[in-house]
Every structure is written in C-alpha cells, then in structure tokens.
Write a structure and sequence with these properties.
single chain; about 160 residues; alpha/beta; Phosphatidylinositol Transfer Protein Sec14p; 5 strands; about 15% strand; globular; disordered N terminus
C-alpha cells in the first residue's frame, strides 16, 4: 500500500508529465460521447478519500458551451459526497496548470459560487488540499487572500511546485 507522500508524488508527476491530459477541440458529434468522460477527467476520486480536480478539463468544459456551471458544480458535489460516504474526510489534489489572470476574472462568479457551496455543504470535511502547477499570479493572489482565510483551513492547503 502506498503511503500518502508516495501517492502525492505520483499525482504530482502525472500533472507535470500531462500523461492524462489531451488538449483537443471537441466537435458536436463527439460531445455526447465524451461529456461524461470530460467531467470525470475534470473531477474524480479514487477508492480511498482522494479527489483529483484538473482545471484544464474545466476549461475544455467551459469552451464546449453546452454544460451549465450548475451541472459542473453538481458533479463536484456528487464526487465529494460519494467520497465522504467511505471516509469522513477527503483530500483534494488540484491542478491549476493553464490558469491565467484572465481566467480568474472570466470565471470569478463560478469560483465564488462553488466555493460557497462547498463551504456550506461540506464544513470541516477537508483533510488536505494540494495545489499543483499554480501559476505565479495564483501564488501572489493566494498570499493576499490567505490573510482572510482562517488558520485552520489555511493549514490544510499546500502549494506544490
């Protein structure tokens, strides 16, 4: 059985190598077949208490213009619910590769909405949050925002290069 450090290393290496990410444009005929696959690539969990959320697939979903943000949020909530049915707390691995300042502005309302829903729906269920491949601007914004985040939550967040 892999320990937590080894699992995190494997996930980090997958994010760095991009082995599971395929950047391509989806045609209208492909969307119905691949929409669930893209949702699962964006947010999924393993058999334990770990959730993987890959922002690059969120960008693919948002570019399809056929998925409402509420459906994406519901998918994330469903994945977390299924995870905490097995374990009380969850660990989340977030890949922010390709996040830009423009994206933060473009998806600001989505970010606020999903943050509020997760905060109210799953209070004190987060064990640890690992953020991978965060661009420089994110780490700067995070430093500013961290002043307003409670210390208990802040201790659960780790930026991984």
């Amino acid at each position: 059985m892999l320990n937590s450090h080894n699992k995190c290393s494997i996930i980090k290496n997958n994010f760095i190598s991009d082995e599971n990410f395929v950047s391509k444009k989806y045609t209208g005929l492909q969307i119905n077949k691949t929409l669930n696959e893209i949702l699962l690539a964006f947010c999924n969990s393993n058999n334990e208490n770990e959730i993987i959320l890959d922002y690059r697939y969120f960008k693919v979903l948002s570019n399809l213009n056929c998925v409402h943000y509420d459906s994406i949020i519901q998918h994330v909530v469903d994945v977390i619910r299924a995870t905490i049915e097995k374990k009380e707390l969850f660990i989340i691995h977030v890949c922010l590769k390709s996040l830009s300042l423009t994206d933060i502005d473009k998806y600001y309302h989505f970010i606020c909405k999903i943050s509020e829903i997760l905060k109210t729906t799953f209070p004190d269920k987060l064990d640890k949050c690992f953020i991978y491949k965060a661009p420089f601007i994110f780490s700067q914004v995070f430093t500013i925002i961290s002043v307003f985040v409670d210390k208990k939550t802040l201790a659960k967040i780790e930026l991984v290069n």
